[in-house]
Design brief:
Blueprint: H1 4-7, E1 10-18, H2 22-33, E2 39-42, E3 58-60, E4 69-70, H3 71-84, E5 88-90, E6 93-98, E7 103-108, E8 112-123, E9 127-129, E10 145-147, H4 148-158, E11 165-169, H5 173-184, E12 188-194, H6 203-210, E13 217-219, E14 221-227, E15 234-239, E16 252-255, E17 258-261, E18 265-267, H7 270-274, E19 299-301, H8 312-330, E20 337-344, E21 348-352, E22 355-359, E23 366-372, E24 376-385, E25 388-398, E26 404-408, H9 410-414, E27 421-426
Parallel strand pairs: 1-2, 1-8, 2-5, 8-19, 10-17, 11-12, 11-17, 12-13, 20-27
Antiparallel strand pairs: 3-4, 6-7, 7-8, 9-18, 14-15, 15-16, 20-22, 21-23, 23-26, 24-25, 24-27
Length: about 425
């Protein structure tokens, strides 16, 4: 219970957004445009823009703006719009806690401890990289080992080169992009090593960042030893079998001074867990309905804190929807109807949304997104309402490195029987 003195310091906000990266900015813009005036965004970094600030390569904005932009250029368009709309953003402010009643505690150098009560709360904290400690890689704990995103920040924002001879473990998009970036800066990238039999990055990045620079991609391989005392001096790589165990006799040694880790992204959900929100073990994000609302009323989640996206364009599109839905919630425009559960079927991993409202009134189209559990060529994605197929769509290729999507039309949603809906891949 708060003391009477502290209660007097609580600020009420209609919509409070945690994070001013691309997700948080898009959600704020949508909420403001929907008529919310009492709106606040909290950002722990000193600037808006999130990870886009260090992504100086192009390839952003093709879906949303129909032109190719760098990360900072893409972010600046939203930053300009946020400022034009007069949205208050408090940078340098770290959110310490939230609860299921949308009570938020934050702290900053300028304002100290701040207490907020939110009519609606949008979680847009983004994601972080999986560190070496999560890999259990054997070998010395020497310097020269970085996550790919950390190396990207050093090179693009701070002007430091992490090393000259580089091996990359993992083929996530940041690792692929850093293979090209390090090469352009004069380093020698010896190999990109991937545990799985397929890359976890976008195909365009494999072509543009590895193939174009003759950087080998070693699939079904992993690092089995790290050498060096003070500084990394080399790594040993080996092929793995179907159970991902190293195969004796397949070892390769690389003399290198830098190992970059690109082994996956993890949604930044510590605050989400504090609010006792239902979580998905597959996406590692919140379980949400088609309006991006969690199981806690008035708490919404969007962007990479919900599930890791391939493209920032998709983050923005999803977050516009969350901002609009949060605005509707605080304006009393509640939705009525019955929920059905969306489940993963054969070959499907991490369907979002996990709940779908069959409304009493008119329905809107709903985008269903998921990651394939493997590589499929000329496969069919099917959506079942119980045992009845309601949607079937051919896909030339499906791979875990690229998000797949389907669109449920209003008439299909209205016709749902009320039982579980399953998304599956048919070979």
């Amino acid at each position: 219970m708060l003391s009477q003195e502290l209660r007097g310091q609580v600020q009420y906000v209609d919509v409070l957004i945690v994070g001013a990266g691309p997700a948080g900015m898009a959600a704020a813009i949508a909420a403001k445009e929907a008529g919310v005036e009492n709106l606040l965004v909290l950002e722990r970094e000193q600037n808006m823009g999130g990870i886009l600030r260090q992504c100086i390569h192009n390839g952003f904005g093709l879906h949303r703006f129909k032109e190719e932009l760098t990360g900072p250029e893409y972010a600046q368009r939203d930053i300009d719009r946020v400022r034009d709309l007069g949205i208050e953003v408090r940078c340098g402010t770290t959110v310490l806690s939230i609860d299921e009643n949308r009570f938020v505690t934050a702290i900053s150098k300028e304002k100290g401890v701040q207490l907020f009560e939110a009519g609606a709360l949008i979680l847009a904290m983004g994601c972080r990289e999986r560190p070496r400690g999560a890999l259990a890689t054997p070998g010395a704990r020497c310097s020269g080992i970085y996550s790919a995103g950390t190396a990207q920040k050093f090179v693009n924002l701070e002007g430091y080169m992490p090393g000259k001879r580089v091996v990359i473990l993992g083929s996530g998009d940041i690792g692929l992009i850093m293979a090209r970036r390090m090469t352009l800066q004069g380093a020698k990238v010896l190999a990109c090593v991937e545990l799985m039999p397929y890359s976890s990055g976008l195909n365009r990045n494999i072509v543009q960042c590895l193939h174009d620079y003759d950087i080998p991609l070693l699939l079904s391989h992993t690092v089995i030893d790290i050498e060096g005392k003070e500084r990394l001096s080399g790594v040993t790589v080996a092929q793995v079998d179907e159970r991902r165990n190293p195969i004796p006799g397949t070892e390769q040694h690389f003399d290198c001074d830098t190992l970059l880790l690109s082994v996956g992204l993890i949604p930044e959900n510590e605050l989400t867990l504090q609010a006792n929100v239902e979580m998905s073990p597959l996406t590692q994000g919140a379980v949400v309905d088609d309006s991006l609302q969690t199981d806690k009323e008035g708490i919404f989640a969007c962007g990479n804190v919900l599930h890791v996206h391939d493209l920032v364009d998709f983050v923005s599109a999803e977050s516009f929807k969350a901002g609009k839905a949060a605005a509707a919630y605080v304006q009393g425009k509640s939705r009525k109807g019955a929920y059905v559960r969306l489940k993963d079927g054969e070959g499907v991993r991490g369907v979002v949304p996990q709940r779908l409202l069959v409304p009493e009134g008119e329905a809107e189209s709903v985008q269903v997104m998921f990651r394939p559990a493997g590589v499929y060529e000329n496969a069919t994605v099917s959506i079942l309402d119980g045992d009845k197929e309601i949607l079937r769509q051919k896909k030339r290729i499906l791979t875990p490195g690229e998000m797949a999507e389907l669109m449920l039309k209003p008439e299909q949603i209205k016709a749902l029987s009320g039982g579980d809906v399953t998304v599956q891949i048919v070979r």
